[in-house]
Amino acid sequence: MNVRVNLRIPGTAPLPELVRLVQDVEAAGFDGAGVLDSQMISRDTFVTLGQLATRTSRLTLFPAVTNPLTRHASVLAGAIATVEELAPGRIKFVVGSGYTSASTIGRKAATLADMRACVRTVKSLLAGETVDFDGTPGRLGYGSGRRIPVLMAASGPKAIELAGEIADGVLLLVGLNRGIVETALSHLERGARRAGRRLHDLEIVWAVRTATAATTAEARRLARPTVVHWGVLRWGGYWVEPSGIRLPKFDVPEVVSRIYPDLSHAQDWEAAIAATAFVPDDIVAQLCDAYGLIGTAADCARRIGEMTKLGVENLYIMPLETFALPVREVTAFRDVVFPGLQAAGLRDGG
Question: Into how many domains does the chain fold?
Answer without folding.
Answer: 1
